[in-house]
């Protein structure tokens, strides 16, 4: 999978792209991420990328020209997703991540300041996602969220596809509790069932715990 990221802050991605699953995916050539500095496409005198909003109000808006130049140059005439992260977007969830993890190429546009000019959204952006009901100062962290979530689903990156399939959200429920050695820690024991070797009962216990945790923390998931 190839991901082009358009950002005003390419350095924010440097360590992120080297470490953990994303780093492994890149080393294994299962993923390639190319960073483009939007400022390189601001051909005006002061490399200005933002301006005051028409109609007044606080905050600055990202100008359309640099974004247009950058997106069209990278995209060419390919029909690929151009994703923009914004608090106004649809909430990103696991089923959307699964779908995008199967796509060969995508472009992610990171906004800053208030928003990007609406005409870029109307003409070039194909998908808008939010990563939660709160406001961040830019789209870089949401872009990293998407890159991490799709990277770990690339073939052989996790080394254990069962692990990915048993994650929270893969089956619509939150995950169950996990334990490792030692069997007793500060007086707290691992539940006997997990030491029983009875895989059928362990599976049942895990399902029941998942259901309990989902009911307690995310009852909205059960409504679906
Ligand atoms: N940009 C700023 N806040 C955001 C959010 N919550 N989700 C996605 N992009 C954002």
How big is the Rg?
21 Å
Q: What is the succession of H and E elements?
A: EHEEEHEHEEHEHHEEHHH
CATH architecture of the largest domain: 3-Layer(aba) Sandwich
- Under the CATH scheme, which class of the largest domain? Alpha Beta
List descriptors.
single chain; Alpha/beta knot; Trp Operon Repressor, Chain A; 2 domains; alpha/beta; binds adenine
Characterize the structure shown.
This protein has 224 residues and is α/β, with parallel strands linked by helices. The protein folds into two domains: 2-151, SPOUT methyltransferase, trefoil knot domain (Alpha/beta knot), CATH 3.40.1280.10; 166-223, Orthogonal Bundle (Trp Operon Repressor, Chain A). Helices cover 35% and strands 18% of the residues. The protein has helices at residues 20-27, 64-75, 94-101, 118-123, 140-151, 161-165, 192-195, 199-217, 219-223, and strands spanning 2-7, 32-37, 50-51, 61-62, 82-91, 105-109, 115-116, 127-130, 184-185, 188-189. The strands form three sheets. The protein has a five-stranded parallel sheet, sandwiched between helices. α3 (94-101) packs across α5 (140-151). The longest helix is centred in the C-terminal third of the chain and has 19 residues, at 199-217. The radius of gyration is 21 Å and the shape is elongated. The protein starts with a strand and ends with a helix. The model has no long low-confidence stretch (mean pLDDT 95). The structure holds adenine (ADE). Adenine binds next to β5.
């Amino acid at each position: 999978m190839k991901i082009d990221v358009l950002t005003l802050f390419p350095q924010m991605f440097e360590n992120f792209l080297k470490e953990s699953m994303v780093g492994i995916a890149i080393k294994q050539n299962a993923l390639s991420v190319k960073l483009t500095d939007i400022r390189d496409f601001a051909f005006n005198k002061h490399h200005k990328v933002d301006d005051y909003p028409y109609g007044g109000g606080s905050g600055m808006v990202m100008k359309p020209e640099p974004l247009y130049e950058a997106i069209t140059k990278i995209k060419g005439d390919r029909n690929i997703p151009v994703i923009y992260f914004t608090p106004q977007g649809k909430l990103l969830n696991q089923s959307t991540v699964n779908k995008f993890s199967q796509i060969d190429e995508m472009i992610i546009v990171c906004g800053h300041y208030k928003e990007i000019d609406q005409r870029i959204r109307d003409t070039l952006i194909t998908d808008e996602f939010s990563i939660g009901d709160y406001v961040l100062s830019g789209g870089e962290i949401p872009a990293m969220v998407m890159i991490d979530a799709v990277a770990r689903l690339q073939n052989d990156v996790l080394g254990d596809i069962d692990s990915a399939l048993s994650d929270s959200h893969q089956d619509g429920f939150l995950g169950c509790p996990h334990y490792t050695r030692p069997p007793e820690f500060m007086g707290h024991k691992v539940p006997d069932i997990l030491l029983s070797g009875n895989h059928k009962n362990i599976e049942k216990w895990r399902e029941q715990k998942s259901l309990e945790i989902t009911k307690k923390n995310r009852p909205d998931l059960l409504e679906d």
